[in-house]
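Re: weekly structure request thread

Next one in the queue (227 aa):
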Amino acid sequence: MRIDIITCVPSLLTSFFSHSILDRAVKKGLAEVKVHDLRDYATNKQKQVDDYAFGGGAGMVLKIEPIAAVIRKLQAERSYDEIIYMTPDGKRFDQPTANRLSMMTNLILLCGHYKGVDQRVRDIFVTSEISIGDYVLSGGEIPAAVVADSVIRLIPGVLNDETSALSDSFQDNLLAPPVYTRPADFEGHSVPPVLLSGHEANIEAWRAEQSLKNTLEKRPDLLGDLD
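Done, posted below.
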């Protein structure tokens, strides 16, 4: 999988992909992430990529010309399954969306900034829009990093345990059960005996029960999707 991220502040993203699971995915050749500086496609000496909004109002708007230039350059090199704009008014990002995107080959993530992008970018180029929550951030870089992380970790071979991603919270509309590691007893707080029993069927039954209990207590709204 290849993910191209378009941003006017690339420094916010470059270090994110050079650590931990994402770094290993890139080094294994399972994922490729390219961050493109929108200012490299500006048409004036000042590298300006934003301007005042027509009609007035506070805040600056990202111009269409540099965005169009970088997208068209990338499209000339390969075909893309999706061009996704990160925006607070997009569709709420969830695990099923991450699962779907992980099956694709090439993605473009466009990061908004300031007051967003010229609407014509959304009309002409964008194929889908994603939000990571009902709040506003300074730009789309953090949301793009969230989407990339959640998608890349689902690619087969990225995680050491192939079943790990499948047992994450939200994969079956349930939260994950509690997990424990050594020591078995910490200041009188002990690991549930069933996890030490070695009886796989009992362990799986306990995990299923705890997963349902966890969801009922913390996110009962998810249980409605199981009907």
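DSSP finds seven helices and nine strands in the chain. The chain has two domains: 2-152, 169-226.
Next request, please.
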